[in-house]
Amino acid sequence: MKEYLNLQDHLCFSIYACSRAISRMYRPLLNKLGITYPQYLVLLVLWEKGERSIKEIGERLDLDSGTLTPLLKRMEEKQLIQRTRLKTDERVVKISLAPKGEVLHEEAACIPSALVESSGMNIEEIVELNEKIKALTKRVLSAESHNYFTKQDDDSIIE
Amino acid sequence: MKEYLNLQDHLCFSIYACSRAISRMYRPLLNKLGITYPQYLVLLVLWEKGERSIKEIGERLDLDSGTLTPLLKRMEEKQLIQRTRLKTDERVVKISLAPKGEVLHEEAACIPSALVESSGMNIEEIVELNEKIKALTKRVLSAESHNYFTKQDDDSIIE
DNA sequence: GATAATTATATTGTGCACAATATAAACGAT
DNA sequence: ATCGTTTATATTGTGCACAATATAATTATC
Fold it and tell me: Which residues does strand D reach (CB under 7 angstroms)?
């Protein structure tokens, strides 16, 4: 078992660097549409099904309200979405696609292929890598909730 | 070729979500050491070789000065590193490990194993995944510099 | 049906990321 | 030596992420 790992041997760093690289590759494409990468993800969720609560969007993207609330307000200012508080439960804010947000669906259709092309991988390889990363994420998230290594004096300070 | 991809089929999202999940899993461990994940990465670089210029750190982590300058100042305030402007070339700021930063090397030794454990993968699988992701990053970065899809009206506005 | 507990969103504050720009030092060619 | 170019860092401004907390509405319990 190696003690002193090189930076490049750290899986955490590879994934962190890869995520930023993809985001940077997408940026010029998304700039043309006037949106950022997290905003694009929100649109992906809304394109699946035109209406979602903020909570549902957060669960889907694993983002909390501190991130989503201002992001969605910026998207409303750009008239991509509408924010409406539910009459039946006034705690819930319903996010729905505005016409401009619908239109972007067509214009953004080419975006996923940008990664496919530049990845130099075929669809089978991409699907396989995707499955591996999703499995890793799932395990990491459950390890996080177990708080494996931090039973002693971390979160438990609160008590 | 599928037109309408589900969010979970997007490799970009899987990697983005995985990166944040790992960062969140590390957070309680890093909190104990009083550092953040990007600060941990800077320390990994310095632990390899005690001294680096900001430029070298930036090249290693693929982060620019707008990110590193304030981050390194926070690390200096915490007495983890020292910042010294070179006498021989006063443009260059040399970053070196302070005693507190050296000490953390021991305390942080368990961190990489946290991901290994929670990943549920063996070393061979991790190395293989790591290589695939590094290869993807490399290709994405070179695609980005070619500006594949954006020859017309994006960056070329500058001209 | 008042009160406690839960739920959904919002707010605040800190720390990245990164584009765009500024500044200042070093270097190169004349 | 001087001027233009390059190089290294810093600054500014915007937009995430996320912890911690607040607020307000709903639901559950008695």
Answer: A 36-39, 62-67, 70-71, 74, 88-91; B 16, 20, 23-24, 27, 53-55, 58, 65-66, 68-70, 72, 83, 89, 91-94
